[in-house]
Specification:
The chain has 159 residues and is of the alpha+beta class. 44% of the residues lie in helices and 19% in strands. It is built from five helices and six strands, in the order βββββααβααα. It has a three-stranded antiparallel β-sheet with strand order 1-2-3, with no helix packed on it. Helix 1 crosses helix 2 and helix 3 packs antiparallel against helix 4. The radius of gyration is 24 Å and the shape is elongated.
Length: 159
């Protein structure tokens, strides 16, 4: 690590501490040449996959866009901010676990729909109506029926 003051390559680590969250390493260093001290931080660099849109264009993954989409679907619904944070984290973990460098926007949309279905059925229908480009009321009815069938207790027959 180069000294930020004299740019000498010879620096020593004096002290190392891990952050409370455990995801950042703080190191106090001393330059052997000018004897000045400075702090460096070491953190894990997670590289999210690039999102490939339907038209073939590519864009960097942005957590804020994902959160905004979830918040729009969940607008005025009784879902806590913590639940939204957990949903975002779950989706991001799945993206990272895929190991892919690129992911189709359709796959990301499916992950979002799964999380919304788990969080709030109304928000799921809202998101699905835009995501799947519902053309008429019958498509809404099918989506609602799908949610109702999944919520039906085991052993209950259709009427």
């Amino acid at each position: 690590m180069k000294c930020p003051y004299c740019h000498n390559d010879d620096t020593q680590v004096i002290d190392t501490r891990v952050s409370e969250e455990g995801n950042v390493m703080r190191r106090r260093r001393r330059c052997a040449h000018c004897d000045k001290r400075f702090t460096t931080y070491e953190r894990i660099e997670l590289i999210m996959p690039v999102i490939v849109k339907k038209n073939g264009s590519r864009s960097e993954y942005e957590s804020s866009k994902l959160r905004a989409s979830l918040m729009l679907a969940l607008r005025k619904r009784p879902v806590s901010a913590e639940a939204v944070d957990n949903a975002v984290q779950s989706i991001e973990e799945k993206l990272l676990a895929s190991g892919e460098r690129e992911i189709m926007s359709v796959q990301l949309g499916e992950l979002v729909m799964r999380e919304l279905k788990r969080l709030d059925k109304i928000a799921y229908i809202r998101f699905a109506s835009v995501y799947k480009s519902f053309e008429d009321i019958s498509e809404f009815a099918e989506a609602i029926q799908e949610v109702n069938v999944e919520n039906r207790p085991a052993g209950k027959n259709k009427k």
